[in-house]
Structure formats: C-alpha cells, structure tokens
Amino acid sequence: MATRTRNPGSLWLASCAPDPVQVHRAWDRDELAPIPTGLHWAVVEAGLTSTLAAMQRIGQDRLGPVLVYPGADRAWWLLPPSVSDLIDDLPLLVLRPVGWVLRCPPADRYVDGLGWLEKPAGEGRLTDPAMLGAAFGPTGAFG
Q1: What is the pLDDT of residues 71-83, one digit of tens each?
Q2: Which residue from 67, 73, 60 is spatially nearest to 131, judged by alpha carbons?
C-alpha cells in the first residue's frame, strides 16, 4: 500500500468498502475506487455551485465529506445511512439508492478530476441530513 494513502481519511474511506485492499490497490494505480453506499453512509448528489453555497451556510465545523467533480458541476455529500424525508422534497438534491457506487479518490488528492472539497478526516463524521435540508430548502441558501 502506498504511503500516500495511509492518512486517516483515506483509511476510513477504504474501511467503508467491502474490500479495503482493492480500494488501496486502485489508489496505488491512481484510479478511483468504487465504494457502494448503504452500510456506512448514504450519498446525496447536487450541483457544485449550489453545494458551495450550502457548505458556507452549514459551516465548516459541521460538514461531513463532500466529493466534487468540477468538470461536470457535480458534488456528492456523505450522510448517515438512514437519510430522512428531509431530502426527498428538495429538487436540487438526488438521494442515491443503497448499493449505488461512488467512485472515490483517496482523501488527500484528486484523481480523474474528482476530489474532496471537504475531506474525510478519518473519524467517520457525516453531514447531518437536517442541516443539509435546511441549507438547500426554501429558507436556506436558495430560498
């Protein structure tokens, strides 16, 4: 395993995959690693511009990991696996189903244009769905 993927955030991400060794091997080859949603976290997809505004509204001390792909104007928020109905009624957010695969770079660098705007720190902190819903809701960043 390459030394550069032995940081707490990357180790945590790899531990969320069914086969952490395969995740590290992908990163060693400078490839994205497929990590399915469901067991450790859920994924909510949003536009990058709206994500930036929502991140400011939520505040850095309350953010969980946020993966971005600037070339496609996309962002993926990691939330607790039991995402509530707060997300369902927000047209700017798409809740990905359990088992959906998020292609992840390691926590400390971009791979194929994807990188962590808010990096996984290693302790498993995730964005609170209520906070995300408030930031994207009618009285939030876009109300």
Answers
A1: 999 999 999 998 7
A2: 60
Helix (H) or strand (E) holding 39: none
Pairing of strands 101-104, 33-36: antiparallel
Give the pTM: 0.91
Q: Under 8 Å CB-to-CB from 61, ≥6 apart: which residues?
A: none
Report the alpha-carbon distance of residue 48 to residue 71 in Å, rounded. Answer: 10
Sign, CA dihedral 91-95-101-105, equals: positive
Q: Report the alpha-carbon distance of residue 130 to residue 71 in Å, rounded.
A: 28
- The answer to whether the CB of 94 falls within 8 A of the CB of 44 is yes
What is the bridge-based pairing of β-strands 74-79 and 94-95? Answer: unpaired
Residue-by-residue DSSP string for 6-17: -SHHHHHHHHTS
Percent of the chain with pLDDT over 90: 76
pLDDT, position 143: 42
